[in-house]
Amino acid sequence: MSAALACLAPGLLTTLQDLGRVGYQHLGIPVSGALDPISLTAANLLVGNPAATAALEIAYQGPYLVVEADSVRIAGAGAAAPIELIAAAEGGRPRRLQIGESARLARGDRIRVGAVAGVLYLAAEGGFDVPAVLGSRSTLVRAGIGGFHGRPLQVGDRLPLCRARASEAEEVRLTGLDLTPPASFRIILGPQDDYFTPAALSLLTQASFTVTPASDRMGMRLAGPRLEHSKGYNIVSDGIAPGTVQVPGNGLPIVLLADRQTTGGYPKIATVISADLPALGRLTPGATVRFRRVSIEEAEAARRQQAALIAELARRLVPAPRAARIDEAQLQDANLVSGMIDALAGDPA
Amino acid sequence: MTAADQLPQGAKFLAAGDTALVVEFGNRVEERLSASVLALARRVEAAAIAGVVETVPTFRSLMVHYDPLTISNAQLKGRLQPLLSGLAGSVSAGRHWRLPACYDRTLGLDLAEVAERTGLSEAEVVAQHSAAPFRVYMVGFLPGFAYLGGLPAALALPRRENPRLKVEAGSIAIAMSMSVIYSIESPGGWNILARTPVALWDLRREPSALVSAGDRVNFAPISRAEYDELAGKARAGELRMTPQSQGA
Fold it and tell me: How large is the ipTM?
């Protein structure tokens, strides 16, 4: 049988995402892609993939997967979550895989991802073998396109892997990637800030808002003080940018995220700057959000700084601690000296 | 205002963060505005400005999505400004689609209600709607979902009080001063007059969306029996539409 990760339990919302479906918004097709492209990039880097390779985006509660390949290298990056690796051999005692660390698994080994405090990316070396739809493997559930049959993972799915077995690379750990959310998210006013009262504009940057459970990949719905419109809340639909803060009739802002619609008819008071969107996408219901106004020049400088940080990530890879290495020879050694059998996962099936 | 903000034809630049810029021509649904938007979209595409990722034409503005690591907001404004001169009057012919539409009550679920609310007979509603020369102002909201300008004023209606949880793909409806075509099944609150068997959105086709902004559309009434036959062909991927005329 072809190489795959088979799904024993899907988690709550596990979808394949890459960096998005660019170039089709004029036909009404949302961009989609990772809510947190920095963590996606990091997960791919850990397994030696190009940054834009599709990986599993895991929200709320993670999946339980079993390896149906000779071997596979995986890594998780993003929000905190317990990742357990359960070796098929030796009675299946689990060990913990740290976020930001790669591991090699053998046939029959299982991966169990627990509750995720935000979104987590699980990348596999070589990527998942699903067809690109309009140039992207991102799942857009609303339209049923991309990813694995256009939908979240389900029990019994076999997610095909591009590689039949892992390469002989050393396991690595990524150091110094700070994913702490900023104290405030930076915004640029507009395009329709003139549709709001002065009180609404000052509340936007002075009040704090809470991420509500009604949030999804399309939009982050915030609770907090109502932002009052000054001339109604219906506008002739226009384009929607990533990070648009639109305010419908109830006065409660919605920050539009990866699966945002291409056009919309509610006034848009502001836009979260691109450098702060990955951190925003990582937030979970209950989190507090504050906004701070910046100029377009500050936004551009912040984005350049972030791009430099991403470019530097590859230099922050260090060899993983011994327990995470599943190189066969080393495993044998480790087995002899320390008996860390649960770490070895070395069934050469 | 900076120099770059003083633009021809009352156009203005609006900030939409650091990865998108709006060029707004007005705040109404009007053929004149739509024509300027579409003409600018073509010019931007032809200019192939490094860093411009894609453009989204809407009724009254063009959104330009760009990569801020390649081009700054100020640089982009500088590149767009010269493209704004002499846009008016450069309307492209667009393609012309003649779409079969079944106005039978079993598919045009709100036909009776539309007749009642507009004070017209059902036959007059159908006659006016199927005689109207529509133009696609925007494709958006859902993949391939088309907003058509040119609805006769007598047919203009606001949303239904109770939106439907499920509107079938191909449903043709009245949306305020426009007509719309639902491209895929979705919830919806507009007044459904008819249904076309033609797929507005089909991933087996390239491009997947049938119509583009700027195209002309009119509806040719068909019977329920004809609808069923064409719908069967469409499901099998055997209903191929070609435009009546190819525009510039």
Answer: 0.90
| Amino acid found at B169 | A
Are A274 and B213 a contacting pair at CB < 8 A? no
Q: DSSP character for B245?
A: B
Ordered structural domains, chain B, with CATH? 4-84 (3.30.1360.40), 95-246 (2.40.100.10)
The string of pLDDT tens digits covering residues A155-188 is 999 999 999 999 999 999 999 888 999 999 999 9
Q: Tell me what pLDDT residue B188 has.
A: 86
Cα distance between residue A240 and residue A229, in whole Å: 19
- Distance, CA of B193 to CA of B171 (rounded, Å): 8
Q: Which two tokens stand for residue A60?
A: 């709320």
3-state secondary structure of A177: coil
- B70 to chain A, any CB pair closer than 8 A? The answer is no
Write down the pTM of the prediction.
0.89
For residue A340, give the 3-state DSSP assignment. Answer: coil
pLDDT of A328 above 90: no
Using 50 as the pLDDT threshold, list the residues of chain B that sit under it.
Answer: 1-4, 247-248
Measure A4 CA to nearest chain B CA, in Å.
26
A164 and A251 in a single domain? The answer is no
**Placement of tokens 């009007």 in the chain:** B30
For residues A8 and A34, membership in a common domain is answered with yes
What is the spatial distance between Cα B66 and Cα B74, in angstroms, rounded to a whole number?
12
Q: How many CB atoms lie within 10 A of CB B42?
A: 17
* Residue range(s) defining the domain that contains residue A221: 185-310
The structural domain count of chain A equals 2
Q: Is A238 on the interface with B (CB under 8 A)?
A: yes
In a domain, A322, yes or no: no
Distance from CA of B16 to the nearest CA of A (A): 5
**Residue B25 near residue B61, CB atoms below 8 Å:** yes
**Measured distance CA(B57)–CA(A26) in Å, rounded:** 7
Given a contact cutoff of 8 angstroms between Cβ atoms, the answer to whether A99 and A81 are in contact is yes
> Is residue A336 in some structural domain?
no
